Amino acid sequence: MLTVASDIDVLARFGRALADPIRCRILLALSRAPVYPADLADALGVSRTRLSNHLACLRDCGLVVTVPDGRRTRYELADERLGHALDQLRAVVVAVEEDKTCPDAATEGCC
């Protein structure tokens, strides 16, 4: 039985996905077009193993889906509105805090 996630759960999942720069790059790439993992790994300059781990995280968060394409599988955003949300989020953050940077959470902590 499918359950509806709470607003907090949805935002926390989205936050976990955006917490890693590689996952951000994956989401931005997928917002432009669906892609095959090998092509995406080459475009991002990461190993296929590393990319696979990030794609699994994004799948578990419900943000991307796999689409069988013959003998291959391509990835795409789970919902096209996610691409629009990423665009809006980038626009809001840049408009509000263009001159600010977020400290690296591993070294300085973050809000």
UniProtKB/TrEMBL annotation:
Residues 3-100 form the HTH arsR-type domain. It comes from the Bacteria. GO terms for biological process: response to cadmium ion; response to lead ion. Pfam families: HTH_5 (PF01022). Signal peptide: none annotated. GO terms for molecular function: cadmium ion sensor activity; DNA binding; DNA-binding transcription factor activity; lead ion binding. Keywords: Cadmium, DNA-binding, Metal-binding, Transcription, Transcription regulation. Homodimer. Metal-responsive transcriptional repressor for the cmt operon. Binding of cadmium or lead causes the repressor to dissociate from the DNA. This is HTH-type transcriptional regulator CmtR.
